[in-house]
Amino acid sequence: MQIADNTVVQLHYTLKDEQGQVLESNEGRSPLAYLHGHNNMMPGVEQALAGKAEGDRFSVTLAPAETYGERQEGMIQRIPVKHLEGAKRWQPGMVAVVQTDKGHRQVTVVKVGKFMAEVDFNHPLAGLTLTFELGVASVRAATEEEIAHGHAHGEGGHHH
């Protein structure tokens, strides 16, 4: 079966920066699952996977606009340190999670004081050209429930 809209795709990936440094990988672990055609994957990655089948392995290099977007000016804000989640002590360059009105967001600590921190709300990988090494572990037709919910269920997907 080929990857198309309303298919559930399980995949392994390795994400590298422009220098070839591995930033993230799930190789050797459970595959990631997503529902194709429902905006659950970065546009460039989803487009590259379209038409592929179980067992396919390939690499694709994508510009920022196709992944995490360009870096935007004016995204640095001061927030109370107590709102930073993920560590007890913070230093510049560390990635934290904060709760916003749009859900949890990753931020990068720019400057930290005793009570307040300056954080960058740009995604930590925004502005980078990224290479994805992808391996399709499986492809199956989505269930009616998955289509109605807009995401994959089961291993590597969403659990209700």
Automatic annotation (TrEMBL):
Any single GO CC term annotated in Swiss-Prot or TrEMBL for this entry: cytoplasm
Residue intervals of the PPIase FKBP-type domain: 6-80
Gene Ontology biological process: protein refolding
Record-linked Gene3D superfamilies: 3.10.50.40
Pfam families xrefs: FKBP_C (PF00254)
Swiss-Prot/TrEMBL keywords: Chaperone, Cytoplasm, Isomerase, Rotamase
Primary localization class, coarse: cytoplasm
Record-listed E.C. numbers: 5.2.1.8
InterPro entries referenced in this protein's UniProt entry, alphabetically: PPIase_dom_sf, PPIase_FKBP_dom
SUPFAM superfamilies tied to this protein: FKBP-like (SSF54534)
Highest taxon of the lineage: Bacteria
GO molecular function per UniProt: peptidyl-prolyl cis-trans isomerase activity
Compartment(s): Cytoplasm
Protein function: Also involved in hydrogenase metallocenter assembly, probably by participating in the nickel insertion step. This function in hydrogenase biosynthesis requires chaperone activity and the presence of the metal-binding domain, but not PPIase activity.
Family the UniProt entry places it in: Belongs to the FKBP-type PPIase family.
Name recorded for this polypeptide: Peptidyl-prolyl cis-trans isomerase
Protein species of origin: Zobellella taiwanensis
Organism taxonomic ancestry: Bacteria, Pseudomonadati, Pseudomonadota, Gammaproteobacteria, Aeromonadales
